[in-house]
Amino acid sequence: MKLKLELTNKWLVWTLFALLFAYALLRAWWIVPMLDELATFYAYIRTGHYFNTIELVDANNHVINSLIGHQFYTLFGEHFFLFRLLSLFAFPIYFFSLKYIVQKSISSKWSVLIFIALISVPWIFEYFSYSRGYALAIASFFAAIAFILRWKESKSWVHFLFVFVFLFLAIASSLTYLMPSILLFSLFGLILLLEFKSLRKLWVYIGIIIGWFAAITPFVRYSFELKEAGALWWGSQDGFWEITGKSLSRIVLFSEAPWVFYLICALLLFCTVSFVWSAKTMGLWSYLKQTDAMLFLLLSGSLIGIVLMRYLFDVNYPMDRVGMYLIPLFILTGGVFLVKNRYTKYAAAALVFFPLSFLYHLNISTSIFSPEDRIPAYLTDDIKSKLTDHTALSAEYVSHMSYAYSCRNDEKVHIAYTAEKEE
After folding, report:
1. Cβ 150 vs Cβ 159: under 8 Å
2. Cα gap 121→358, rounded to integer Å
3. Among the listed residues 31, 33, 87, 29, the one whose alpha carbon sits nearest the alpha carbon of residue 408
4. Which of 28, 181, 189, 338 has its CA 20 to 30 A from that of 72?
């Protein structure tokens, strides 16, 4: 039997999903908690203070993750595998949403490579095994895009409502998605105006939209509370490429060399020219209904929005995981525009880099991002074996939290206190 390399091949898709989900499951069980997970556990999951300022005002609090984590902690006790289940269950949403988006964007056999590239960015994949909000946020964001495409075909109320459910989940999972979700929402509103001819039906949809804005109001208010408290400190204002570009390039392409900057600029320029050319050829209003147009506007609008937020609201440029959603958006948009053009479609073969880097980084012991943010189990055991009953252990902040957590169930507890790092 000949294996068809197409996304319509159920054997291919389900085998790929099963392998990836099994790997994520193993990582969720074996990987030692990283600093961000421990901080979330101590401040929010353990206490249940996940949507107020009783203990700590910190952007590290991803509300849905803290809420669900606290329920698991209350019902089943303390085990990080339980706290990571929410991220694990977000992976099927991410996987099948991207599959649908790629299928609707690309009809050629290049769709398989682009889809595999999207789901095999190793750094992003790692977050589906962490007790953080980023996995559910990015999965919900792309699920919202997928349901917009479904709604365009079906005009179903169910699909329409799911757009807003997933956008709400994205924002509630990580406030990082507030700006891109509002942008996607605006693009959806534009599609509504282009698609609808019945004014009465349109008013019903507008009513639902107003209700959605009311639902996200607490999160908008919370984001301003975080800003006023100085909690949105991750990143800086030293320049978009210097902060956002280099931090993402370093953990996705494993390089921040100048050629990366020029390559990204060239691809963005190519996408812009392709967008303008297609809009001119098809007519702007007709082209805006196309999936590739929506993807381009979402990517370019996000980039512009980040810069505007820096100057209008004095917000830092996002760094690494705060700008995570830009990576699949860039791969999707760039891949779609490359394969549409017969002269550039073979350039998409470069996307094989992502599955190859994924295979190279396979492990159940460490991570691409901040591998030093945890103490491996073997090192913890070695330290314990060398401590006496009268020993006081000192450690810097990261090691202190990691070691303190590993000793929570010990009969003999050695006091660990934070020591300042020497410059």
Report:
1. yes
2. 6
3. 33
4. 181
